[in-house]
Structure formats: structure tokens, C-alpha cells
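Hi R.,

Here's the chain you asked about this morning:
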Amino acid sequence: MEKKRNMAVTIAGVAFKNPVMTASGTFGSGMEYGEFVDLNKLGAIVTKGVANIPWPGNPTPRVAETYGGMLNAIGLQNPGIDVFIKRDLEFLKQYDTKVIVNVCGKSVEDYVEVVERLSEQAVDMLEINVSCPNVKEGAIAFGQKADALYHITEEIKKKAKQPVIMKLSPNVTSIGEMAKAAEAAGADAISLINTITGMKIDIHKRRFALANKTGGLSGPAIKPVAVRMVYEAAHAVKIPIIGMGGIANGEDAIEFLMAGATAVSVGAMNFVNPYATEETIQGIEEYMEQYNIEDIREIIGCVE
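And the predicted structure, written out as C-alpha cells:
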């Protein structure tokens, strides 16, 4: 009988049956994907960003296809924490998978309010989206200055009942410096990368493809940048890393694991192929069989 390969990983005391998660904003809370994917098979579902009050998001058009990826300027449209608890968390309770809630806000107080509201809920971890514009700092993202990142991480850790993942922005000079700031402030883990700021112009209409002018670039085009940043972050900090950015299959995921990620998130590819998460899990299993790897931890951070 064939031996079962161990794909289980642990992050901040939370045990996952495998290292494959969904990237926030690309999978809703799983409702839309339930007919394609067996949600019980996923390591975790990472929800779309939720704020203390409903956010309308940006004006349309707010999605544009690009070579090897897509630009989005959705603006974190969400129904707010009340609807989220009643609708999304209720839905997720029926599945045997870990639940990670992505939290967004426009001020430190906004974030803390959501974190406190989630303290008694059936949530395994919190992922903090620090790519949100900090209204009190002239709309510079919380994740673009090391001191701002340190401050928000510290404040959230004071109130959070669940382990905290800080989701880092790639739009910085040194990802290692940002990773260190999050770790120093008490983050239990970090996830990276969020989208890269990009732009597309419609040359026939002589106008921007997105109403917002700029948007976040995701998809296979950003994978080499993401792998490099995960590798740099893994060599800067000791806390676990969840890697993402252009993962389409098991081979992509393994690259991130070898670079030092403990787990991975599949994002933009969910729009192209709704089965991408399950296929990524299967691809990792096949790779482990091919190279006779008994435990996935054998390959995590194996390249120096």
C-alpha cells in the first residue's frame, strides 16, 4: 500500500491539513467556488477584506486584463463586519477547513474595531491588509513605512485573540526591512506579496483602462518578483511566511515553499481556473511522490 505523504503544516500554533490557501479578494468567502472546489480539501480559506463599516469600493471600470495577469482597483468593496459575521462566517462553519479573515481599515482604530469584533468568532487567524491607504497619514499605505507598519501591528496585537498575519506590500524599497518591523512588533506570521502597483492605457480611447488610473497587478507576471521577496523575507525573519503572487499550479507553489514559505495562497488564477486551488494541492502531492518526499517540511526553505 502506498504511504501517505505528510502535507500538514503549522503556523503560529494553527495546524493546516496542507499548505494551500486562497488569496484574499479572489475567492470571496468560498460561496461562489463551493460548486467547483471541495472547500474541505483546502488548507484554509482566506476571506475577502472586511472593514468596520460597508465600503462601496472604487468607480468602474475597475478590472483590466494585462499580459500574464490582471489589474484591479476594486477598492476593497465589502459589506462591513456585521453582514460578514452573519453571512460569511455562518457559511464557513459548515466546512472542515481553517478560516483566516482579512481585515482592512482607514485608520488604526478601524482595524482594531474589526479585530475586537472577531475575537469571539470561529476564526483561526487574522490577516491584516496593510496596503490600505492610511487617511490620517495622507493616504500613504500602512505597509509602506516601517514605523507605520510597526505601530499598527503593535496596536492590533494588543487586542487580537487570534494569531496575526501581516500582509506585506511589495511596493517598498526593502521587503526585508518591512518583514523585520512586523516581526519586531509581535506579528505571528507574514504573508506576501500583495499586488504590485500598475497602470494600463487604452490607446484607442486615449484614456486609462481603470477609472482609478492605477491598480494592483496580480497573476503569473508577478511570480518571479514574489518568489524573490519571499526568499528575502525568509532570510530576514524567523516567523512563518505565507507566499503568494502568480501561483497557478503545484510547481509554482513548490518554488515558494523552497524559497522559505511555510504555506501558499492561490489568487488571480481562481478567476482563470476555478479549480486552481485543488489542482495545486494535487500537484504538490504528485511532486512529493515523484521525488519520494515523505514530509513537506523537507522542502520548506531548502534552497540557500
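The first helix runs from residue 81 to 92.

Let me know if you need anything else.
M.
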